[in-house]
Batch of 2 targets.
Target 1
Amino acid sequence: MAHQRRSRRPGEQSPALERRRFLGYLLAAPTLAVAARLGGDLAAPAPASAAIPSIPGPADILDLGDALTLAAAPTSGLIAIQLNRDDSVSFAVPRAEVGQGITTTIAMLIAEELDLPLSKVGVNLADARPELVFNQLTGGSNSVRSLFHPVRTAAAVARARLLVTAAEQWKVDPATLTMSQGVIRSSSGHTASYGSLAEAAASPRTEEVSATLKDPSEFTLIGKPTTRLDALDAVTGRKQFTMDLQVPDALPTMICRPPTINGTVRSVANLAEVTAMPGVTDVVTVSSGVAVRAATFGQCIDAVRALSVDWGPGTVDGETDASVEQKLRAATLPLALPPVLTQSIDAEFVFAFASNSALETNCAIADVRPDGAEIWSGLKSPIVAQEQIAAMLGLPIPSVKVHVVTGGGSFGRKLFSDAALEAAEISKKIGKPVKLMWHRADDSRHGRTHPMSISRIRANYALGNVVSYEQRHTSVTTDFGHGLGEILTAVAAKLPVGDVGFSQTVFLLSQSMPYNFGATTQLLNEVPLKFHTSSMRNVYSPNVVCARELVIDQLAAKLGQDPLTFRRNFLKNDRFRAVLDKAAEVGEWGRELPDGMAQGIAFHWEYKSASAVLMEIDCRPETVNRKIRDAVAGPRVTRAVAVVDAGLPINPRGLEAQTIGCVNDGIALALTSSLHIDNGLPLEASWDNYFYTRQWNTPPELEVVVMPATTGEPGGAGELAVASSFAAAACAYGRAVGQMPTRFPINHGTLSFEPKPKVPPVPESPVDGLAYTF
Amino acid sequence: MSQHTFTVNGKQVTVDTDDKVRLLWVLRDLLGITGPKYGCGINVCKACTSHINGKAFNPCSVPVSAIGPDDEITTIEGIADPATGALHPMQEAWLEQDVAQCGYCQPGQIMAAIAKVKQARSEGREISDADFDEIRNICRCGTYSRIRDAVRSAAAKM
């Protein structure tokens, strides 16, 4: 967030940036290794001098006069690309892969800049690297935006170095050489694979050099729909997640958790008895409950259920949905502008707690020894994890090795390292390695949530114009304790004042107003209740934008305009309008639908990217009342069209996939998925309680349109369309039933399941699985 | 503790564990077969979906004692052609559609999809929206539309 590049105004075209030179590094290594710095010093001081689109001469690409010596170059914060003798290239990306496709995107950038087959690029996940400071946080849809230039710069340095090396060997002008598919060719017939030059191109010392990046007109891979590099591993079961790793003696471990959030262990009545259960090796009290370690997770579940624990109170024991809502309403900031000589719309919306539980529950492996520790987990803030674990264990930071493992989804959850911290605590306490996994019930009830919020809006209008728009968003405090991925900011975010400042910063940096609505203010107020909270995909935007777009439908009606026409008229620029128009065109806005069905359309702008979503919803009884076991079958979104303009789409196929996910997230937020807080604990403990979109809810017709490149730079993409999808579903529902919905999800008022007991904390695994074969 | 013998992915295995340990943990924790994933342990999320004697089931909810020596368990690791190693048409369709995002639920999705298509086929019909209403596997990345495309595409080749 602090490291986003300078912003342009929406719709402004990219300047001719691509021929600018960037600073990179040749690293001292046995084979060619190159690097770039993450962060602020990428731009070379001199602007591009040559505008000629040809392979530049050696002095242009490798200005040795600019080179600095190793002694002077601060190299610790570099990200390095390694060329191997077998023609492959290796890169450890300082980000988490949690399904968003960052490893594929980064491999594409490297392959593009180096003219290398994509199959030759190996991208894995970097261990925690505290020297990267702010630059190992995965969030804010910022990974591609922050890595786009550094990764290309490093690859461009390698490219230049290979050209110079080949030219020296063949005693020809580098300008006469061509590079393609991992091979350099000269006009006189020489050829060499990159790998064959890897040693000759290696630098004896680390030098700072400048590099010129490919012109976008030369792109052959960027912008080409590309299948994920891990797709084969995913469909064969070979893709490994944390719980699939075989770490010697790291036996299955689970925690018996309290019946209220942050409840504490007073005493355990049957410790010895449970320790003697089949397979159980250890039972020990830890800060979050009672940990059990056993030969199998099945035996852990049995032991957790058998424990008889006297629990002390937690931090929100008396809280229920109604009490939290009342506190939020009391804290709502006043609306400032009274309707004077104008007409006015006042509206208030309530959004329930929602879970960012991924399909992979919180989990981590820890091997803590007296002189060091090793941790494996899916972590989006691994530096914070490393520093917190080191502090907890009383070890120096370098003695704690933190491996970032591919995650089974995140949705904000993996910004925090809850399981890694617990695993380290348990491993230390029992003196053995542990493989800690949360039960689904724990993940749902004790895992982090997107907190309840209330959004109040007043829009004043007169003479066909909206003259003011005020939005007051009040939320239970969202924990940003992961800070910017580094311990100092994480600590600052925990200070009472610091956290408010951090939330406000995130809110203000993420909430823009894409419409010309006169005097506009959007303010956040937070109520500090001690729930487990965190960001959830798209953070504040889904609720804020849903409320706004519903009010826009009301304004359109008051001003006698069609919802599409109204939005077109008030959107701030043509880039926005192009996205909206495309959604309307592909989604056939205004087409005839039966009674009980309606269309809704919504727009959102964030992360320098725009999205518009059109949905059709079916609220007819024959659809809503379909009999599906343990399910909420309707209303159902039957058709969705999502249009995204992400500036420069690097992998349109991946962008489409992310958008499909956003559509399903938005539908869930609008219609079905929420947590019911009951005396200090969510009631939901299963995927048949927390109604995330399922096959019977997903639109049978779904189309994603990726707009062609509109700028030279990638905008954020991974969470862009959650807000617009949520809003489109809500607007469609309002138009279908003839009344604006104000409480979300719309079925929250009905408890559509039988809650599982709070004690024991996890349900028994059934034994009748063979009765359900098909 | 007692011994349990059965077949997994074409190989006979014997494990020594408590009768009531659910098969998922026998596969994952004792045999190191990690394709079937844990997502709930109560037969809801379906991430562990595998096949028993050719039919889809969820090993999280079957005690190992319920599995006999004649039972053949197939996990995602065993669904490719054992002779040639060629991927199952459903796996191929998954690649063509680039279905997986995080990939965690996908082994279970594929195993459920194969069984669903076979079930429809055995009832003399093609897979329909009503069949998709019966696929309970959850995907928190929301890959559903590509799953539907892949299942329909694979069904034509199965």
Target 2
Amino acid sequence: MTEELFSKWIDDCLTPDEQVIVDAALAEDPSLIEEVESARGLGDLMKSEFPASQEPMYPDFFNSQILNKVAQIDREGAAKTAEKSSPWWARIGFAWVPASGLAAVLAFFAGTKVNPPEQDADFAAATELPNVYTPGGNHKTRVVANAQGEVSVIVVEGLDAIGDDVDFATVGASAVLPERYLISQQRQL
Amino acid sequence: MSCSRILPLILALLLSGICSAADPGLDKIGSLGVQLIYATDGDATLAGEHTKPLEADKISALQGLPDLKFKNYRFLGGDTKPILRGYENWATPLKPSKEILVNFEPRKKLDGDRFQMLLEYWQGGRKILTTDPVLTKGKSLYLLGPKWRKGRLILEVKILELI
């Protein structure tokens, strides 16, 4: 008897044809019934100990990451399709026009002087940028990385301004504290 | 030996057993420093008299980043909290105020001194942002946050120690 058939037997999902095979195997080796009962017992134990489904720790962030990944896969797929569908000379198109212009400009500057890169040039596109998720929806975020591709700054625009009357030196605890904050404090006591 | 002497001994033994079986998720695997800075192109004294001047090396670090380049900075407050092996932890840089909270949890140890963390920025009891940056020990991650008193709040997050 195959493992697949054994699994279907445990789950009571055998077809009539499969049931014939199982009955024949059982007639040959009656101890199989004990194995099935044991496996079913283990399954029941696991069902009683673990919930059928469980929310991930950070559901909103988890979902945003999945959507980001799907979008990334879509982009990669579209890029590959475009690459395959056209020959290399078609892909280049008129790119040689600005390229030759750029080469001429570079040749000019190389002949005069070489400047160190400006500060902005150090903040090139990162290779390992983090996912950023803002549950509020109206916030815009921008991630800026340093030359090593490490994230340096996350800029968040559109946040509610904090009232000028709020004085952090004197204001007490905020009225609403996250439940997770309280649980964390209790856990560490 | 009388009962009054034996009982405390038994209790002590039991307690030591409980302590040794403590939750390993609460083990400290490092520490995270969170600092809050006020940045403005105007009058820095608006931040209040309880604030402190920012260290010179920090000012030059901030002014080297185009998005964080302001004329004046003030140090508002900071907090250092352990990074727990299996649980989240919270930093309150504006103690005793809990207006701004930073939640953090380790996700993945990478090569060298790099750690992927899950960070949440909370303001006024609301979660504003979640992110999962790779932090390198000793290197700062800045978050340019809300406006306040004609300036902006900048949050600095840095792994100070890895065990």
